[in-house]
């Protein structure tokens, strides 16, 4: 439905504090961002305004740190499937599940080591997985009353004695977890059987990220060896097969993050060069480089693609979020074939019989009958390629406005304080 399949220009900028990363929700109507001061901001994508300003962490939500001379990405972010809950993780060793409708904490989990990565279950709104620094990954289940239970995710591979999980990602049904380790192994854990069902070493460097396409049949693995690996997964229980590799053979740059386009036909990656803000776009099937988007002279830290539109959001090291979209040209002749575009204003010459009342014809009567038919402008059809197994589930598209005092600058984990009324 779009004139162009990938964006070309920066059209908007989101600025509020020092933003470190951002993610769209499942429908692309909201955009969550983590800040240096520990806040979680939720933007409305249409209005570009802040819908929620959540404060619950005392340290940055995400950052890029250098550990043992290896760049490790510390990022924790995830939307629940229904879009109501937001998972945030911080360097203060905690994860918080936010209820965005009430802007309150649903639960807060504290760990014994820093949180490297966290991700919500793709089907369940009360379950998420966490990768801990130099520790075993943990699966957390949240109960209705806010309490939670934790259990370790197995990683019983002999060669992985000194390794730990640096990245993780659920498959589309949520039955398996794909784990990337600090030793370059890709492990697949079957949670029902509670064991590792597949393991392979794809590189000798840490795996920084594992991203799935919307159809759940392809994954892109980002490692520290400056190479993006595309794998094909035919079935949820199938073994991933290497399909293609993407890299910059000339500049040999690192990739801060990689992702798929909305239709899954393109692979997008953000350059890790310190002097440029470039986004590389490849054709997934052919493997050729399609476009390089050149942004401002600010290092790029994060990149993500809109789930429905040809829109990309990039985050710079200066804390700014840039929205890339397509350049749309208006074509009114597509609606009215007899419409003529004018380069300048012209004086209109009325024809002699233009406004004469003529006899009513059959075609005119049929046209009036068509205009009297009722048109349904309320019912919205679902976008089929985003439906999962034809499930009918309510999704939070927008956030209700919360009553706040004028002097409130942030939405905290409790309701706004009630004003005291003095007795007369």
UniProtKB/TrEMBL annotation:
Keyword entries, A-Z: Nucleus, Repeat, WD repeat
Residue intervals of the Anaphase-promoting complex subunit 4-like WD40 domain: 158-205
Cellular component per GO, a single term: Set1C/COMPASS complex
WD repeat placement: 78-108, 293-334
Location of the protein in the cell: Nucleus
Gene3D superfamilies (alphabetical): YVTN repeat-like/Quinoprotein amine dehydrogenase
Chain ranges passing through the membrane: none
InterPro entries on file: Apc4-like_WD40_dom, RBBP5/Swd1, WD40/YVTN_repeat-like_dom_sf, WD40_repeat_dom_sf, WD40_rpt
Main location: nucleus
Keyword Nucleus: yes
Acidic residues bias spans: 348-359
Pfam families: ANAPC4_WD40, WD40
Record region (Disordered): 348-373, 401-424
Name under which the protein is recorded: WD40 repeat-like protein
Organism: Hesseltinella vesiculosa
